[in-house]
Amino acid sequence: MKRAPTRDILWLFLATRLLLVLVTYFGYILLTQDKYSGAPVAFSTFLNGWNQWDAKIYVHIAQFGYQPPYDLAFFPLFSLLIAIPGHVLGDWSYLPLGMLISNAALLASLFVLYHLAADSGGDQVARRSILYLCIFPTAFFFFTAYNESLFLFLSSGTLLALRRQKWWLAGVLGLLAALTRSAGIMLTAPYLYELWLARERIMIDKKKLLLSSLPILLIPLGMVLYSIYCWTLTGNFLTFVSVQAHWSRQTSWPWQGFIQTIFELFWHQPFGSFNQVHILIDATATISFISLVIAGRKKLRPTYTIWISLLLLSILISSSIGQRDPFISNRRFVLEMFPAFITLAMFTASRPRLHQALLWIFPALLAALSLLFVMGKWMV
Fold first, then answer.
1. Which residues of 58-96 are buried (b: 16+ CB within 10 A; e: fewer)?
2. 321: buried, middle or exposed (CB in 10 Å: 19+, 13-18, 0-12)?
3. Does pTM top 0.85 for this prediction?
4. How far apart are the C-alpha atoms of 91 and 80, rounded to whole Å?
5. Which tens digit of pLDDT belongs to each residue from 292-313?
6. Which domain holds residue 205?
7. Are the CB atoms for 304 and 282 separated by under 8 Å?
8. Residues 211 and 117 in one domain
9. Is residue 357 part of a domain?
């Protein structure tokens, strides 16, 4: 197994964190302070700029516990990791701890993803995969107190463990992923596929078969444990499902979101409106990653294609049909779909001009969207 370039990964991580810090500092001051003002902006103001939307909810759950029923839509592991040291350090610490955990999980993810990508396409593809992930226009969600980076680390770690046939490690990581996001339970499908690929090796004797197969039960156990917790609070095992409508999520056919998007973009929303741009960003992210799944299906290990296909299907059948933007938050959800970044890296390996274009476009959009998030604009 090729060793990950630790120094290069650390530099990539630190450089992209610095970019977000600079965006926060210069952007916030220049857009909020009066011209020629000599009044300083408190450090806490910069920090609180990242306490927006779902970050507020995760931090609030960590600090005060669940307020049923609507909070139960947010799975518990991320808030629990904040709460454990937060209760010791005090009220000031919850947001910084959430950001620290999110960034640490991203750093860990970069090492995991390097190995997954290197297995698929070599060192150059691996380096570009993690580069594109870090400079992707919505990668700022990895910086604040969102659970995207934690889920990315646990899900990609599960797939790396499966690739190395470390079944018990895969089961434990899958359990933790299922406690982080409801989508974590779908890791059972890649697990089953990897078992099938290794069937000749693990079916030599009953003990080996049992030790390889038994850990898969840990993955749904994560959701079972959370369901029991929901029952103790509300009397309903599936409260986290029943409250989705409150957060504008509902079960739909996969194509309904596309039909509504076309209608909104070309008929309902006036050209240049905030809603139109918002819809366009989410639709572009969704369509781009569907295209990358199709383009990468013959290049990647089938396990990765199964995983990203399930993730895409899950967001397509839970669109926000009741809102003007049916694909709301897809700009964020695609961050978890690491196989698409590997496919993109493979695609640009023979297209240097495209690679150079992405190196300009991605960071520019990342800076712009990060600033909108910090300013409290509708970036969820």
1. bbbbbbeebeebebbbbbbbbbebbbeebeeeeeebbbb
2. middle
3. yes
4. 15
5. 999 999 999 999 999 999 999 9
6. 149-239
7. no
8. no
9. no
